[in-house]
Amino acid sequence: MEPNLLKVNRVKLESDKPETLIKIVFFGDTHFGEFYDTSQLDRIVEKVNAENPDIVIFTGDLIGASGEFISNPDCISLGLAEIHATYGKYGVFGNHEYALYQEYDYEETMKAGGFEVLVNDWVDIPEINVRILGIDDYYQGSPDKDLGSEARMDAFNILITHEPDFVDQMNIDGVQLILAGHTHGGQISIPFLTEKILPFGGEKYIKGLFEIGMDGKTDLFVTKGIGTTKLPFRFMNIPEIVSIEIGN
């Protein structure tokens, strides 16, 4: 049953930045393909829009690479274009984007859907005093471990990464929030089994909220994602969209 479910996980976080009030909705690991049909995108769009987000984030792995390539990127773009966010939509590469590099153009697909893909780059949203930093895929890309140094002292800084464990190699002192995916929360949570099947780059921070960095001042949230890979099963890991309210 779990792969067919989809819940909204709502989280409230505090900010030490003055007058910070932001709602971020993020999702990842849709793995559209043999186990998750693009027709499911409609309910993702509906649930995201129902949260009235200021910013929407996608943390990678749009189309699954573990089976035959049967997804239509143009249809996915049309669906993504229906997602609304007051101050923009942003994403990063996941390892499956690199695995399917010959099959379709991920950046163009996301761009057609209104998303800006950040590859070791950042963008400012001055209206809400936010800087978003997006890192390249840790597993197959060329991630810049020094990207955290681009955090602004006077802004609320959000770092997006597909694989969560890479943040331990970075200077994140100036980053308030990190958003990641990749792990599927373990996908199938069974004692003594799950730790053996966790993916590279997602063996330490598996799911949920962590306080990391100097004095635990950086919040890291790892989503359980939406789709599945290799096997069409989930256990104790209901697919989710994460809605984060940040305020003082």
TrEMBL record:
InterPro entries attached to this UniProt entry: Calcineurin-like_PHP, Metallo-depent_PP-like, Metallophosphoesterase_sf
A single Gene Ontology CC term: membrane
SUPFAM superfamilies (alphabetical): Metallo-dependent phosphatases
UniProt-listed GO biological process terms: lipid A biosynthetic process
Sequence ranges assigned to domain Calcineurin-like phosphoesterase in this UniProt record: 22-185
GO molecular function per UniProt: UDP-2,3-diacylglucosamine hydrolase activity
A Pfam family per the record: Metallophos
Protein name, entry field: Calcineurin-like phosphoesterase domain-containing protein
Native source organism of the sequence: Acetobacterium bakii
Taxon lineage: Bacteria, Bacillati, Bacillota, Clostridia, Eubacteriales
